[in-house]
Amino acid sequence: MEHTISRRGLIGSVAGLSAGVVGASMLGESTLAAVTAPGRRASLRIAHLTDLHIQPERAAAEGVAACLRHVQAHASKPDLIITGGDTIMDSFEADEARTTTQWDLWSRVIRAECSLPVLSVVGNHDIWGWNKGKSRTRGSEARWGKKWVCEQFARDKTYASTERAGWRIILLDSTQVDKDDANGYDAFLDEEQFNWLDGELKSAGNTPVLIVSHIPILSVTVFHGIKPDNKGDLKVSGGLMHTDFERLRALFAKHRNVKLCLSGHMHLLDRCELDGVTYICGGAVSGGWWKGNHKTCQPGYGVTELRDDGTFTYEYLPYGWVAREK
């Protein structure tokens, strides 16, 4: 059974708020900037590279390498790279050999092309074998599920936090098993992770918080291309946006230090502001899965400057990749 969020349900839940959804847009332009008053000092500069989808085909490894070189060529080079999930093209439905090939490519490109520290978010395509039929897995393999990606990212858990330059950065794991379809997934935080997040926000005190998830907590892009059903509703799959958005919104309202939530997954670019939190869906390094633009969005990545007063700037930068057949 597909879990959905209807337009009436989602918009109705926020329409009564004082500001509603402010400044929401879906852009094909190269830049989406969060305006910050001049003179405020940047304390941390982060490159957000999401949906890299590295694979042997279509020169994807060369594309990721080109993106990394572009990131590191800035006059003000970022201090940190955060990859936003779907690092590899797919292991959800891939067998062990194909998954090994993709992770080996990723490791080689990072070793050869990246001199910056990297933090990584787990995406749905980074999870091995949840579709047992297509991946030809049993579920008892040593690296099945999220174990392989944790090994790649050198972490015990799929979620994590760190302190950098006066900000707390929290990496979430959006992807959970669809309760009605063991071969599928929905976006939400399980109880253990939700309670952990609550504790992280409490312990952060007045420290500003950046949250990075693969699947958007809130996004306008989820309505792109969706047609009304026979009742006139626009229904959004639970795999496209967090089904626990209202629960997370309430949590953020309790902890006013959450300033910015970055995501990917949609391969599109947007910004929403609600209750003092900014939500940005950050395009895709792979664009349209290495076939060119995805709809209006060029292959690119985001750069955010986190300021020492809790404000930030954000810019989306295409890196000039031209799609190849091989």
Account of the protein in words:
It is a single chain. This protein has 326 residues and is α/β, with parallel strands linked by helices. The protein has one domain (4-318): Metallo-dependent phosphatases (Purple Acid Phosphatase, chain A, domain 2, 4-Layer Sandwich), CATH 3.60.21.10. It is built from seven helices and 16 strands. It has helices at residues 7-15, 60-72, 96-113, 132-135, 147-152, 191-204, 245-254; strands at residues 4-6, 22-26, 42-49, 80-83, 118-120, 160-164, 167-171, 175-178, 181-187, 209-212, 235-237, 258-263, 269-274, 277-282, 300-307, 312-318. The strands form four sheets. The protein has a seven-stranded mixed beta sheet with strand order 2-13-14-12-10-7-6, covered by helices on one side. Helix 2 (60-72) packs parallel to helix 3. The longest helix is centred in the N-terminal third of the chain and has 18 residues, at 96-113.
Which structural class do you get from the secondary structure elements? alpha/beta
CATH class: Alpha Beta
Q: Tell me the fraction of residues in β-strands, as a range.
A: 25-35%
Looking at how many chains there are and whether they match, the oligomeric state comes to single chain
The number of strands is 16
The arrangement of helices and strands along the chain is EHEEHEHEHHEEEEHEEHEEEEE
CATH architecture label name: 4-Layer Sandwich
The major beta sheet can be summarized as: 7 strands, mixed
Radius of gyration: 19 Å
